Amino acid sequence: MGIVLYDNPASSNAMKVRFLLAELGLDYERTHVPLSRPRPDWYLARYPFGTIPFLADDGYELGESNAILRYLANREGRTDLYPSEPAPRAAVDWALDAWSTQFRGTFFPAERIGLMHGDWEQGGSRPEDADQAELAAAIAAVHPKLDVMERFVAPNGTVLGSFTIADIAFAPVLWRWYRMPLDFAPWPKVALLRDTVTARPAFTAMGPAA
Prior knowledge:
The chain has 210 residues and is of the alpha+beta class. The chain has helices at residues 12-24, 41-46, 65-75, 86-115, 132-152, 165-176, 188-198, 201-205; strands at 3-7, 29-32, 54-57, 60-63.
């Protein structure tokens, strides 16, 4: 059957995987999974956690977007994207974990308020239509994390100094924040990272959504 990706166009975690699949030039099929919960019985029967995305590759099945990134890079022997040597590989793993544990959770509330108060699968909504006081408070909560990210990322438009799956993990949410009312000028390294990774042809090719 080849690769089948169970995803949703509006899922930033699914966007990560589509970005890497495009970067690797791999063909794959997509199966749509709705964002609404509870997830469909047919999906939970296949993948009990029910999170998005989920990958099937000729009988091998894998969940969790960062695990899928590691798997696909290893599958294709792309040590430029996911190094084989312990120290540089650990740096990529650190960046992936830092994204998930230190950064992502702080960004999401502002996205929920500013972009998701409409039908998210139909393009969501506009920040200007949100409760502005609530949105401003959620965006203000992101500033300290951007301060940390500014110290963490490299100055050349990548996370670690060269393009890896860490950049692929950061890219979808940073891209989403082009729509948010926040000037990234105080964080020039993060701004350059966002501009650089989302300008890659594979990012456009994977079909980013809301």
